[in-house]
Amino acid sequence: MKPAGGRGGWGWGGGKGGSKGGDTGSGTKGGFGTRTRGSSGGGRGRGRGGGGGGGGDRQRRGGPAKNKNRRKKGITVSVEPHRHEGVFIYRGAEDALVTLNMVPGVSVYGEKRVTVMENGEKQEYRTWNPFRSKLAAAILGGVDQIHIKPKSKVLYLGAASGTTVSHVSDIIGPDGLVYAVEFSHRAGRDLVNVAKKRTNIIPVLEDARHPLKYRMLIGMVDVIFADVAQPDQSRIVALNAHTFLRNGGHFLISIKANCIDSTASAEAVFASEVRKLQQENLKPQEQLTLEPYERDHAVVVGVYRPPPKSK
């Protein structure tokens, strides 16, 4: 009968060392060894650790394997304020336009949320996709003023399901108000669900062509943003401005050329809409195309200057 192989001792730097015995029964348990490879116990022995008797050249379990658990180099992230108050720029693996999330932990349309430590506190921001928001496209396009800032009162015409409205809600904060007008009942349901978690959004499910139908719901506002994509959108903006926009208030209107006249060039359509606005005491101050985010779209920004009332 062959003698039993000795079981290896406990290694100083690894897990339980040693190999099992050879073809016959197990041997005696070894003592505590130094950090050296033990002798092989036999043909079937397998090393369970690195410090004691080893059955082969396997990596011991007690220590880290080579190239394992190697940490990737960390990426420094930060958030910088944009020149438009209430809008921010996220600096990380990729730069992005963001707004401070008014309802932390909740996404509105599946947008990415990022958390940054500021003054020892966690702040959550929501990324703002310019391909899904005309206002974000205008900001990234370099618009001079959006006139929407904390504590503003905003009338949003054509709110749809609340994608851009939610970011306006972030910008104006809890002390502001955004009246979101949407005629489609299907989109209106989504808008109402967004408003349930955001107390500064007041959904108005009415046709923006008839502002007198909802005049009892809306007070005077500082800014009108219109994204209605209708042939008579200049008239729609004018009607709401005469009813709700304070003297010296501002407007932003997103113009989609194909919705107004698909036969004329986009530049001709934009010029025609600007003339219509001027006739309604809406004074355009800036015009910006939304390339490359939207094709044949422009945003016109201006101020409302109604004529003085005759005594």
UniProtKB/TrEMBL annotation:
An annotated GO cellular component: fibrillar center
Localization annotation: Nucleus, Nucleolus
Ranges of Gly residues composition bias in the record: 1-56
PROSITE patterns: FIBRILLARIN
Gene Ontology BP terms: blastocyst hatching; box C/D sno(s)RNA 3'-end processing; mRNA stabilization
Gene3D superfamilies: Phosphorylase Kinase, domain 1 (3.30.200.20), Vaccinia Virus protein VP39 (3.40.50.150)
Composition bias, Basic residues: 61-74
Keywords per UniProt: Methyltransferase, Nucleus, Ribonucleoprotein, RNA-binding, rRNA processing, S-adenosyl-L-methionine, Transferase
Keyword Zinc-finger included in the entry's annotation: no
Keyword S-adenosyl-L-methionine: yes
Span list, region Disordered: 1-78
SMART domains linked to this entry: Fibrillarin (SM01206)
Pfam families per UniProt: Fibrillarin
SUPFAM superfamilies the record matches: S-adenosyl-L-methionine-dependent methyltransferases
One MF term in the entry's GO annotations: RNA 2'-O-methyltransferase activity
InterPro entries per UniProt: Fibrillarin, Fibrillarin_CS, SAM-dependent_MTases_sf
Family: Belongs to the methyltransferase superfamily. Fibrillarin family.
PANTHER family in UniProt: RRNA 2-O-METHYLTRANSFERASE FIBRILLARIN, RRNA_TRNA 2'-O-METHYLTRANSFERASE FIBRILLARIN-LIKE PROTEIN 1
Name the record gives this protein: rRNA/tRNA 2'-O-methyltransferase fibrillarin-like protein 1
